[in-house]
Amino acid sequence: MTKNVTDMQKYVQDLLDAGQKPVYYTKTARIKARPGVPGETIVTKLADGHKETENPNIETGDMVVTNPGGEQYVVKAETFKKKYEIDPDNPEQYRPTGGAQQFLRLKEDIDFKVSWGEQSMRKGDFINITARASGDIYGVGQKEFFDTYGQCTQDGKLLPTQSGRSGIVR
User: What whole-number distance in Å separates Cα of residue 114 and Cα of residue 159?
Assistant: First the structure.
């Protein structure tokens, strides 16, 4: 059964108070992006077909991001400028610049409100709690998370994977 969470800040604080420890990851995947069209609606579907969210509130300057696995979502103009830059090795892509972010792994299915509407996350998915004090909490599907993020230290240094390469540690 899916839990309807009405106060994500309290939900996150309850998880932390219960002893769940945040993990640090940084986005490593290169993305493609295009300007959004005001009035356009972007539906974010995960690789398994699960509808994660829908964003009908695109404004001028917002960017529609496409991750390597095909997942699409909207990033507000100011946030995009802070989190991405053109990849000098491939100017048709953007590379992340966001650094270390804090995540909690969900132990249950939840639905909750986000700044653009609602989000539906499942057990095993992740919620980004980096900006929880301001209420900016959002989810990332499990497969998409492991395909686009690498575990890192609190200061953003990628940790080696079991194969010895920096990147994703499951």
Answer: 30
pLDDT in tens, 89-100: 999 999 999 899
Token digits of residue 6 = 């009405």
Domain ranges of the chain: 3-151
For the question of whether the overall pTM of this predicted structure is more than 0.85, the answer is yes
Q: How far apart are CA 40 and CA 135, in angstroms?
A: 25
How far apart CA 82 and CA 27 sit, in angstroms, is 13
Place of tokens 């829908």: 54
Burial of 4 (0-12, 13-18, 19+ CB in 10 A): exposed
Selection from 170, 120, 132, 154 nearest residue 1 by Cα? 120
Asked whether the beta carbons of 128 and 11 are under 8 A apart, the reply is no
Bridge partners (DSSP) of residue 137 are none
- Which 3 state secondary structure label does DSSP give 75? strand
